Amino acid sequence: MNRLIEIFMVALKLGLTSFGGPTAHLGYFRNEYVERRQWLSDKMYQDLVALCQFLPGPASSQVGMAIGMMRGGIIGGILAFLGFTLPSVLLLIAAVYLIHTFSVSLDWIQGLKLVAVAVVLHALLGMGRTSMTSSAAVIIAAAALFVSLLLPTAFTQIGIIIISGVSGIILFKAAGDDQSDRFLVPVSKRTGIVSLIVLLTILLVLPLVTSLVDNDWLHMFDKFYRSGLLVFGGGHVVLPLLEREFVPGMMTADDFIAGYGFAQAVPGPLFTFASYLGAVIKGLLGGLFAMFAIFLPAFLLILGCLPFWEQMRKNTVMRRALKGINAGVLGILAAAWITPIITHTITAPLDVLVAALLFIMLHYFKIAPWLIVVTGIIIGLIVYR
To answer: For this UniProt entry, which segments traverse the membrane (predicted)?
Structure first.
């Protein structure tokens, strides 16, 4: 019991302090879990990150879930997830009530929307530094960008990921690995198989059920579940999927982009943006329900794959595929930055100036993301009221 409490409290600390997006989250995790607490070695941590980047879903959240499972089994994974996720979920639901319940003017939200422009561009450049290390990677990323803009569908993104992975196997080489560390996961392979079966059953059966049953909650679950599963590259890449699922059918584009801006203001995983959308549609219960639906496939994937990871991590073909996938993800992210973020946000020369200022503060002066958000809010209150 003490170990489970420790897992939750450490994850809660990270959930309250981890600003800056998935890459920053992985840095916070390494400092806490590897250096401070030594729950796993640096080599094991790097391999775990590789697995979660290869899988669809929110990579940083999946790393946290996996460490929780390694430390405390399935219950440990759930507690690690709740500790890291609940702070941002509750803050985003509160933001919905602040705007809609008290009829707060939305004009100043333009400042937060411009924050989103700067933050995603910063993420693009950061990923580019690590992914664009060869001409082949540049070609894969450029092709992914072009196809994503030309054919903006969820199936297109899946195809890009598959083709990028195959291209990586053909074009890249993987470095050798030291296998001296072994994963000790208190989860059986049988449990892992059952988890993967449940994952695929929900994915295949749910669209059929929603086509026969007209229920808002069921439709919400289907949309969030598919968005949480069919995404590679983390929170930024889920943006176009969610936008196509919920805009304009269930909310306006302004509400959607404003929520993304609010998501930059809170610590924790960007996937909790779903809680904002759920709260806009169905209130408090909708926000909590959306959190469950969008993170469920990530949890089932980690539960299903972790018992087999000791064997999987020895496969160099998977590592080559990951290099190609990383390049493809960069192209998808660039497309998401262009639309809907740019197309729904930059409408006047002043918007370009403000977005450039916020980007310079974040990228060149290394100002903390939450201070960029505060600056965006202040500019919105002064300039766009």
So the answer is: 74-99, 105-125, 132-149, 155-172, 193-212, 224-242, 262-281, 287-309, 321-342, 354-384
